[in-house]
Amino acid sequence: MEGLDLDSVLEEQDAVAPAPEFVQAAAVSDPDALRARAAEDPEAFWAEVASELDWFKPWDRAVDWDLPFARWFPGAQCNITHNAVDRHLSTWRRHKAALIWEGENGDREVFTYAELAREVNRGANGLRALGVGRGDCVTIYMPVCPQQAIAMLATAKIGAFHSVVFGGFSAEALRDRMNDANAKALITADGAYQRGKVVPLKATCDAAVADCPSVEHVIVYERLGTAVEMVTGRDRTWAELTDGQASESTAEVMEAADPLFVLYTSGSTGKPKGIMHSHGGYQVGAYATTKWVFDLQDTDLYWCTADSGWITGHSYIVYGPLMNGATVFMAEGAPDFPDAGRWWSIIERYGINILYTAPTAVRMFMRLGEEWPDKYDLSSLRLLGSVGEPINPEAWRWYHRVIGGGSCPIVDTWWQTETGSILITALPADPQKPGSAGLPFPGIDADVVDEHGNRRPDGVGGYLVVRRPWPSMLNGIYGDPDRYRDTYWTTVDGMYAAGDAAVRDADGYIRVLGRTDDVLNVAGHRLGTMEIESALVAHEAVAEAAVIGIPHEVKGEVPKAFVIAHDHVEPGADLEAELRESVAQQIGKIARPQVIEFVGSLPKTRSGKIMRRLLKAQERGEALGDTSTLDPGSIPD
Ligand code: WT7
C-alpha cells in the first residue's frame, strides 16, 4: 500500500439524497432491505435472480466453489441469446424497439426485437454454413452500430465465442488477439466515420489477417458501402453471408460454464490477458445489475456511450439491457463532432432517459463549457451513470447540476472486465456521495482489507477484495490458468484482489483510490505500462524504457515515457515524434505517450526491476519513500 496518498482523498463529501418520488417509483425502493436479504444467503439470492431468466435445463446447485475456480449453476443448460432476444418474441415486446442507432453522418437505423431476432438468426445460419460453430472463436472488429451487437449475438447463438477488439486498436494488436484465441472468422466493416473522416477498418484487418493462419473467413458489414479490397474465397460481405439464409435458427444448447466471450485487457505484464466469461453466470450478473442499477423501465430510452470493444459495451449495451427488454440507443462517432453539442442534441432529439458514460467525457464537456448543454432540452433524463475511473467530486457536481438538472441520481459504478458486471455502486434510491462508488451490490461480499485479509478500519486505505464468488466473475484467463491464479488470488490469500486500492467510510461506502499494480487508466481505458514499454523498446533507437501515468485534466491519466536511447542515436524532438507514432502503430492511439523524456539511466532494484514508483514520486515532486531495494548503481551521482 506504499506510495498511496490517502489524506488528499479523505475529505468527506455530503451525501445527496434522491427525490422521494424517484425512490417511490424505483425498481428497488428499499436497497437496504434487498442487501440484507441477499447477505443472509447469497447463493439462494443469486439462484432466485437466475430463475427470472429462461434455462433449457435447471441447475443442480447454485455454485461449486474450489478456489480459485468457481462454477456457477452446474448442471444447467442455457444460451444467453435466448434471454437477450428470443424470449421477448412471445411477449408484447416483439415489436418494441430493441436498438436505435445514429451514425455520425446522420444515418439512422432501428431494429425491433423481431427484426433483431431475424438478423441474428440469418447471421447465425450464415456462420454455420461456413462451418463455424461450437467452441470456435469469432473476432469482431467493428464500429458502434447495431450490426456489432448482431455479430456478437449471432456468434453466441451458435455456441461459438466472440472476441471483440476495439476498432481503435492497431493491426498488430488485432493480430495478436486473433492469434492468442485462434480466431476462425473475423467480422468487420468496410469502415466507419470518426470526426468526419473514414476509419479504414477493412484495410487494418487485411494487414492483421496476413499473419493469422487460423482465420479462414473475413466477413465485411457494409457500413459505408465504399469499395474495399476483397480476397476471393476468404472474404464476403455480411449481405453475402446472410443472403438466402432462413430467419429462424435454433440456439445451441450450452452448459452454464461454456464460453460466451473472451475480452482482452491489460495487466502488469507486456501481454494482454484474455478474460473469459461464460453463458450461465455472466447472464445472471449482467441481467440483475442492469435492472436494479439503472432502474430500467419499459418506457425508458437507455444510452450507454461505450463501445462494445470494451466490457462496458458487452454488459451494458448488448447483453444486460437486451435481457431486460430495453430500448438501447447507440451512436457512432466522437462526442464533440461536428460540435460540442452532439450528445446533448441526441438527448433532446430522441428523448434519452438514462445516460451512462465515463468521467473523462464529463470532464471534457465541463471544459468545453455549459453553454453547449444549455442550448438543448435535457429534461427527459432521469438517471445518470458513471464508469471507468473514479469521478472527481467537481465533475460529479457538474454532471449532476448541468446535465441532470439537479434532479437525476448518479450511479457511480465500480467494476472490471474481470467482474463481468457492476459490483459496487450506490443504487439509485440510495443517497449518493460524490467521488465514492458506494456500496457492494446485493449478494456481493466486497470489502477493503490489509495484505492478510483483515478488514481495514473505516477511513483506512487497503486492498479492494471480493470474498466470495459471484455469478459473472471471470472463468479464467484464456490459455493461462496459472496467470489467473497469480494475478487475482495471491495478493490476499483466499480472496479475489481487484488490483485497486480503496477506503471504506463509516456508512460502508467504498471510495476507489486507484490501481495498486502497473496499470494506467487513460480516459477510463486500461493500459499496461509494460505493454507500452515493450512497444518502445521494439524501436531500434531505444535501449530501455519505463512508463508511468501522469495526471491529465480530462483523461485522468496519460502515459509518460522515460527512454534511454542507444549510444549511436541523437535523442530529440524527431525521435520523440517517431516513438510516439510507433507506439500508436503497435498498440493504438490511446497508448501513445503524451511526453517522452530521454534519460541516461533508470532507477532499478538490485534484482534489475525498474522502480516506476520512484519515477512517479520524482515526477510529482514527492518524497521517494522506501528506497532500500534501490540499486545505487542504477542512478547517476
Ligand atoms: C478498472 C477496470 C468497468 C468498465 C470499465 C473499465 C477502474 C472502473 C470505476 C469506478 C473507480 C473505476 C478500476 C478498475 N474503475 N470503474 N466507478 N470508480 N474506478 O473496465 O478496463 O476492466 O478497468 O477501472 O481501477 O479496476 P476495465
What can you tell me about this protein's structure?
With 637 residues, this protein is an alpha/beta fold. The protein has a domain at 519-634: 2-Layer Sandwich (GMP Synthetase, Chain A, domain 3). The protein is 29% helix and 23% strand. It has 19 helices and 30 strands. It has a seven-stranded mixed beta sheet with strand order 5-4-17-16-18-19-20, sandwiched between helices. Strands 7-6-8-11-12 form a five-stranded parallel beta sheet, sandwiched between helices. A four-stranded antiparallel beta sheet has the order 21-22-24-25. Strand 28 (542-552) and strand 29 (556-565) form a beta hairpin. The model is unreliable at 1-9 (pLDDT under 50). The structure holds 5'-O-[(S)-butoxy(hydroxy)phosphoryl]adenosine. 5'-O-[(S)-butoxy(hydroxy)phosphoryl]adenosine (WT7) binds next to helix 11, strand 20, strand 24 and strand 25.
